[in-house]
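quick one before i forget lol
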Amino acid sequence: MPNPQRKPYKGIGMEGRMAGWYAKNTGKDLSPFRGLAARISERVPEAGAILEVAPGPGYLAVELARLGRYRVIGLDVSHSFVEIAAENARKAGVQAEFRVGDAAAMPFADGMFDFVVCRAAFKNFSAPVDALREMRRVLKPGGEALVIDMHRDVTNEEIDSAVRAMPLSAFDRLITKATFKYMLRPRAYTLDAFRAMAAEAGFSGCTIETDSIGFEATLQKA
């Protein structure tokens, strides 16, 4: 199992053309982002502050900003994604702020956010426990973090089935399957490993739900 304390980044370098390719393909179907935004909005007080860690092209942050008077901020290590996300927010006519930064050393004050969400990025963090500690630090007491990602025990058949459901061309489907199987799955964590990291980071509770390819972990700060 990868060292949960620190590991070298070996994911796709999400800058320039690669960031543009990812944004184009994930933007073909926005319904998952809208559905997730609606679920999150039920758990955040009106005018609350929401942080998305590693928002990528910003589709979820934009959908959250559409739903209420939230303060929505995204923090991403990729300069290209920050630019793309800011442009997507501008085109949508919503207020959402995006900054370049490290998930393991966030440029935010303690207790600044009501809710933190991280979708499809946690497995790539070089210092996962530090990132979880930072999520907890920037949450207000009683706040929640939601981490959504792939789990390590997913099979090739489950990956194939999930990718078939995506609105992708034959070429992009092939690339996406290979990315899941040979780049992302080896970096993912078992559910027990994630629970151990959440406890080490100081969260008072960790509730995990799974589907065929991924998991959702809700983390509570006392």
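fyi The chain has a mean pLDDT of 92.
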